[in-house]
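Quick start: load a record and inspect it. Here is RNA polymerase sigma factor:
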Amino acid sequence: MEDKDILIAFKDPDTRHIAFRELVDKYKERVYWHARKIVIDHEDADDVAQEAFIKVYKNLEGFREASQLFTWIYRITTNEALNLLKKKQKKQGISIDEVAHELEHSLTSSNLLSGEEIQLKLQKALLQLPEKQRLVFNMKYFDDLKYDEISEITGTSVGGLKASYHLAVKKIETYLTEG
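Running the structure step on this input writes:
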């Protein structure tokens, strides 16, 4: 089902449930992996995905179609993931650096991630980046999104995104060559 068909079917109370199931089936994997790259932990990524889809359901009828459906869903997912990290930081009374250390520990102890050393090293390098650079790098490098799509998701100018991506690449290169 195309996005426009999902939106039309969602507006009809008789087909709303089917349309939403189609939407979830179409985007659940991308949403999960997008969340996973931000929060690292499998259970947290599941929670983020679930919360994101709840928000999508509650707000889909009012979706203005000013952007693509998947960029709108990514924006919601990004916000939910960042909110989860902030809640963890606040709940545990720790700094963002300590949250990154906790995520790194989760990364190395997870049996769901590939044990390949270079992949693990790349993920550790990503955790050293500031939040915004990590988000931009993940969306550009892993999700292969265009800068204008990332701009819609993050609310950042394309020029700012290009600068963030460039800085992230340089920092990752430094981490990988020095580490």
